[in-house]
Amino acid sequence: MQGASKAEQHFQPGETVPESGVYTVLHYQHRQQHPATIFKGDRFPQCTRCGTAVRFELARSAALISEDGDFKPSSAKVKGAP
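Below the sequence we write its predicted structure tokens.
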């Protein structure tokens, strides 16, 4: 969607997830919207009930802990840590 902010952008099944985070899942008529955690690089899935009519909207982005520099393996130990 051109001109829409990331929070307003709707993604559809089969598209590649652009960033990890909590997405609002918007079903077609059979269920209320709900949150789901989806990871960057995965594909947005189809719903078993509404198929390709389901949409996804980024509610809150979240980086994987493994991508955070403070949590990468290191040979240096923190003073006082086991």
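Residues 6-64 form one domain.
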